[in-house]
Amino acid sequence: MNQAVPTGGAPTGRGPTGKVPTGRAARELLDHAQALAGAARAVLDDHRGAVEAAHTALSPLLDSLVGLELASIPASRLADVTEGRLRLGALEQAGYTTVGRVHGAGRYELRQIPGVGAQTADQALAAARQIAHAVRDTVAVRIDMDAADAETNALLVALHRLVEAGPDVRRAADAARRLTAELEPLLLAAAPARSRLRMLFSGRVAGARVPAAVASVQAVVLDADARGLRTLFGQVSVDLLRAPASEAEAWVDFELRSAEYYSLLAELSGSGPDRDAAEGFLPAGIADRVRGLRLDDTCLRVSLRGYQSFGARFALAQKRVILGDEMGLGKTVQAIAALAHLAAGGETHFLVVCPASVLINWRREVTARSTLRAVTVHGPDRQEAFGEWRERGGVALTTFDALATLPEATGCGVRPGMVVVDEAHFVKNPGTRRSRAVSGWTGHTERVLFLTGTPMENRVEEFRSLVRQLRPELAPLVTATHGVAGSHAFRRAVAPAYLRRNQDDVLGELPALVQADEWEEFSPADLEAYREAVGSGHFMRMRRAAYARPETSAKLNRLRELVAEAEANGLKVVVFSYFREVLRAVQEALGQGVFGPVSGGIPAARRQELVDSFGAVDGHAVLLSQIQAGGVGLNIQAASVVILCEPQIKPTMEHQAVARAHRMGQIRTVRVHRLLAADSVDQRMLDILARKDRLFDQYARRSDVAEATPDAVDVSDGALARRIVEEEQQRMAAPV
């Protein structure tokens, strides 16, 4: 087992002058370089061991899937592989009627069959292996939370080691490979500098090369020390050598961040999506240019899936573009990755413009997924915040309306490294105040990234308006004909400025369930209603206060946006709330054509009729349901978007509701959006519930007892309510 090399200081002989060390200073330098190379080799060995352990655990699961596929393929396909040269009559008569049956047999076994000689047996086995290899490239392991077995447990424990170590693992392994490839030949060439005697016997020509090798070693070591590589290698080795997690711990972690596990699975098994699809069917020239850009993830705190890395590089390579991925594919993190790359290269100022409903989400995402500094430029203090951003840099986060009140780009003395405009279809009309404000910044910035989940091929005029702001020369080339010709034709026509991947394009790399917390800030009217509810000490009133003033409700506004994006993508939505009053507000906000609400007062047969009618609609539809009524007993797998209007006291209630859509028969990734109000009862509930023993909750919730009696593992409603009411009354009574 490798041990991480302890982090040491720089060798004493290397001063700021850059003078080539000699004598004792050279020996110290080479010792330091040797230790650095040892740390690099150690982390590569540790990483290789962890990856091999994951492959070992994955192999039997893949073998099982391949076996199932081969068992359904008739033996006649073996003849196709050999172009008809293989005679199968004797094999089939002996019961070897499937490729799987042949593949599982040995050469000696097949030769015992009358009429099967050595050549036929060898050809049949070779053809079966060829088909098995092709099948193995197409199967993908899916992890079923409700069907754990010993092999799946072993795989999760092995993956947990790599996932828990985080994105630093890949960063350290890449750096270690480059370092060892560069440093080890130099150490060999510089070795005579360790002693005068070795220099004496190295010869005149070789001796003349030694100082150059020492100088090169010095340069490599200085660069590695500046980048903190020895510390990185040591920490990653420690992470990879930790004791294995328990099975329960691995399952809990998988549920919390399944996307990272599935991304790693796709990488290990080579079962990622078709490259052309993952790259948005871009023309070869553009795709090659994007692939050639190496993404610097030094300032990132997360690992990107393959298509996400490509999206970030597309934005950087093409400079002024629209990223139009379908909702749920991570447009935000791709934008953050592009900003992080530029920050690693020395850029200091960035600007993100977005609707007010997602401002707080952007702040949380920038902080959680990168080392970049987020500055909210919104509200009454926006001018001061803008001035502070201008002086110190970071990612300025502002809204369309707030941007119009800020100094213009030409007069503030700052040129952002990139401007990101989220929900860019908000600025499709160039004559509006918000569009003019955005254009004032994008017109003076080299790199601009528009984000929108709305499929532009369905809105050619809208796209032409947006692309005119980014690449005016492309706008005349886009015609309605391209939209009529289909999505692939449209994407190829606008490839220099537009990248879109649909869920189906990258489904192989996506988890079956994507969960997102949608944090909103109370509008003034929301806050007033919430203060009244807190003052009354009524816990349930506090929970639904965010919807008490529907015309100005921040949560309702975000819900409308999510439903509109789902409609643009033809997806069905189910909206859950504990409260009938909230569902009535949602129904009024969305207008006609909404199914439900499903509630406890409706007979079971009628509830199923509503669900069946909802599922029978071709394309987009919305179903409303009380969470306690629709969360049990109904199958809503027609829906692939789930919106939870508020967090629930009982976590099991949320899990059961989501399980109505995320279940057998669901063919699309399910996206769950939980609407949350910052600094409110929502946040207090999540804080308290997060402090519970997660392992116990996981054990209990996965048991038959918990499924039958979910109340048994949840905190007391009354105790939780009293605690939150008291905390909120104290907080809101305190002076600001």
UniProtKB/TrEMBL annotation:
The keyword ATP-binding applies. Residues 312-473 form the Helicase ATP-binding domain. Keywords: ATP-binding, Helicase, Hydrolase, Nucleotide-binding. Residues 558-711 form the Helicase C-terminal domain. It holds the Pfam family Helicase_C. One of its GO terms (molecular function) is helicase activity. Residues 1-22 are annotated as: Disordered. This is DEAD/DEAH box helicase.
